[in-house]
Structures are given as structure tokens and as C-alpha cells.
Amino acid sequence: MTGRPSKTATPARRSRATVLLTAATIAAIDLAAKAASEARLADSSVDLGLIQLQLAYNSGVAFSMGDRLPVGVIVAITAAIAVAIMVYAWRRAPHAGWVERIAGGAVIGGALANVVDRARDGRVTDYLHTGWWPTFNLADTFLVTGFIVIALLHARAERTTDAPQPVEDRPATPAPTNEP
């Protein structure tokens, strides 16, 4: 044994590092935006046209569902879901393309940012308001967008078992002859 990692270990490590770096970056961006929103939007809102910056808090989960559950239960459930997503992304990363790794990192980062925010005071800070949709935050946007990208990637034709094989993978068939 030489003690050196195998050639396949390095790409797997890079793939996983991409997911983790993306997740950390997304979580940091969202947590910074939440802190800035709490500091700057406490007594005001900012109209940006299609979207307004407006401070709100959500003690439940998506669309305020479960807002009467104890905070510890919500934190535990959402943390367990985040850990499950991390385990999936960790195992999937070496086999995933770069788009799927970034999308997985976005999902993890969004989930972690909301768990950290909720663990602080029992609620999630929201700051993006449309007027026609419940107020949300960047973590929510990253979570939803990441899941949609992953779903679309897995729904592509070449990922299904019914998809036709590429020409080079098909068994060779002899060319028809005109001989009697």
C-alpha cells in the first residue's frame, strides 16, 4: 500500500466538496439577508416593483402550516429532513453532474439556513413579499428551485428505463442482403 488515495477518491471528494461549498454559501447568503432584513425592515418596507422587501416571521413550516406545534418538534423534524437530504446528496454527489451537485447544495443550504434561523427564536425570518404569495426568504427560493432542478434532471428521458438505447450501445444486427 502506498497510502495515496485512489484516482476515483479525488473526483468523489471534489463532487462532495462542491455540494458542501454550495450549501455553506447559500446558507451564509440567506442568514446574512435575514439579519439585514431584521435590522433594516423592522419599521418599513421597500417596494422593488414585482417584489417588496417586508419583514415577516413564520412560526410554522411551509405556508405557516404547523404553527401551533412546539418549536422543538418543528426544529427536530426539519433538521431530520435536512440530514436525510445531506446523506442523499453525499452519496449521490460522485455520480451526479455539476448542475445536480449545485442544486443539491442549494436544497441543503436553504434547509440549513431555515433550521438555524428557527433554532434561534422559534420562527423563520421572511422578507420577500409579492402580494399574491405568502412572504418567503431566499432559503425557501433555493430549496424550491433546487428540488425542481433535481426533479427535472431525474425526469429526463435518458434517466428512464424505457428510454431507447444510444446507437453505440445497441447490439449489432447484420445488414440485410439481397441474396436468395
UniProtKB/TrEMBL annotation:
<keyword id="KW-0645">Protease</keyword>
<feature type="transmembrane region" description="Helical">
    <location>
        <begin position="69"/>
        <end position="91"/>
    </location>
</feature>
<feature type="active site">
    <location>
        <position position="140"/>
    </location>
</feature>
<feature type="signal peptide">
    <location>
        <begin position="1"/>
        <end position="35"/>
    </location>
</feature>
<dbReference type="Pfam" id="PF01252">
    <property type="entry name" value="Peptidase_A8"/>
</dbReference>
<comment type="function">
    <text>This protein specifically catalyzes the removal of signal peptides from prolipoproteins.</text>
</comment>
<keyword id="KW-1003">Cell membrane</keyword>
<feature type="transmembrane region" description="Helical">
    <location>
        <begin position="136"/>
        <end position="155"/>
    </location>
</feature>
<feature type="transmembrane region" description="Helical">
    <location>
        <begin position="98"/>
        <end position="116"/>
    </location>
</feature>
<keyword id="KW-0732">Signal</keyword>
<feature type="region of interest" description="Disordered">
    <location>
        <begin position="161"/>
        <end position="180"/>
    </location>
</feature>
<keyword id="KW-0449">Lipoprotein</keyword>
<protein>
    <recommendedName>
        <fullName>Lipoprotein signal peptidase</fullName>
        <ecNumber>3.4.23.36</ecNumber>
    </recommendedName>
</protein>
<dbReference type="InterPro" id="IPR001872">
    <property type="entry name" value="Peptidase_A8"/>
</dbReference>
<keyword id="KW-0472">Membrane</keyword>
<keyword id="KW-0378">Hydrolase</keyword>
<keyword id="KW-1133">Transmembrane helix</keyword>
<comment type="pathway">
    <text>Protein modification; lipoprotein biosynthesis (signal peptide cleavage).</text>
</comment>
<feature type="compositionally biased region" description="Basic and acidic residues">
    <location>
        <begin position="161"/>
        <end position="171"/>
    </location>
</feature>
<keyword id="KW-0812">Transmembrane</keyword>
<dbReference type="GO" id="GO:0005886">
    <property type="term" value="C:plasma membrane"/>
</dbReference>
<keyword id="KW-0064">Aspartyl protease</keyword>
<dbReference type="GO" id="GO:0006508">
    <property type="term" value="P:proteolysis"/>
</dbReference>
<comment type="similarity">
    <text>Belongs to the peptidase A8 family.</text>
</comment>
<dbReference type="GO" id="GO:0004190">
    <property type="term" value="F:aspartic-type endopeptidase activity"/>
</dbReference>
<feature type="active site">
    <location>
        <position position="126"/>
    </location>
</feature>
